[in-house]
Design a protein that fits this description.
single chain, alpha/beta, Rossmann fold, 7-stranded mixed sheet, 9 strands, 41% helix, 23% strand, elongated
Length: 260
């Protein structure tokens, strides 16, 4: 009888221990859920475009072929509405390019994410961008790499992008008002190069400024019609080329037009 009572007592102890542990786990789970909800609510209150940005990432990127978590995280973080004209802020998170003046556009968010993903950049990388525009693509890259060097041929756009990026706190972006066809030789070589305007050939100076094994992504083809988003990897004297998808970019101006 005593043995039976001892066993029963042990069972009760174990039962109440499991019960207490279960209750603690439920409380902890509910706390985490509530805390997450409060964080999201606070985020939404601080940034009125947070939900729009999250929708953009979930529906226009994750639902398609953008899968790189670090790229998705940055696309959800960077405020695109601060890189578009004031009269287009309401459309900042629509999946489409928007005009920024001087015949130029800010690229479609999906394409920005896709091009960034295909470059496969690392934290210690140095990247060259041809076509700064409003500075949005430079901001995305600046979140992922050590240094961004970006060239814009339209002086007012270069100046406004520099002011905007500085205001947003990006200290690792360097802007130059020049013809991007010739690159930035004094800062070469680059781990990656991204060209955000259409060309019908790859500018030779950019290939020279690309590191061995480096990647260059470019909208290649007719500057008046559709182009093919093309990824080029430098392998000695050869270029390994991969075609990704059809795109439509405004043409790169300057020297490239003279050689078209």
């Amino acid at each position: 009888m005593k043995i039976y009572k001892r066993k029963f007592t042990k069972i009760k102890v174990i039962f109440f221990f499991i019960l207490a542990l279960t209750i603690l786990l439920i409380i902890n789970k509910n706390y985490k859920i509530n805390n997450t909800q409060k964080t999201l609510e606070n985020q939404s209150q601080i940034d009125e475009f947070y939900e729009a940005r999250k929708y953009m990432v979930d529906n226009h990127m994750k639902a398609r072929d953008v899968y790189d978590e670090k790229v998705l995280k940055v696309m959800e973080k960077v405020p695109r509405h601060r890189f578009v004209p004031d009269n287009l802020v309401a459309n900042a998170y629509d999946d489409m390019p928007l005009p920024i003046g001087y015949g130029q556009t800010i690229s479609q968010p999906y394409i920005v994410a896709l091009m960034t993903q295909e470059l496969n950049v690392g934290k210690g990388d140095k990247v060259l961008e041809i076509g700064t525009g409003s500075g949005y693509q430079a901001a995305i890259l600046a979140e992922l790499v050590k240094e961004v060097y970006t060239i814009e041929i339209v002086e007012p756009l270069a100046k406004s992008a520099e002011e905007r990026l500085s205001r947003e706190g990006y200290k690792n972006v360097n802007i130059k008002n020049a013809d991007g066809y010739f690159g930035w030789p004094e800062k070469a070589p680059f781990d990656s190069i991204i060209i955000t305007a259409a060309v019908n050939h790859i500018p030779p100076p950019l290939i020279e400024q690309l590191k061995e094994g480096g990647r260059l992504i470019i909208p290649l083809g007719s500057t008046r019609e559709f182009q093919t988003l093309t990824l080029v990897t430098k392998k000695g004297n050869d270029l390994d080329t991969r075609f990704i998808t059809g795109v439509l970019f405004v043409p790169l101006t300057g020297e490239t037009q003279k050689r078209s």
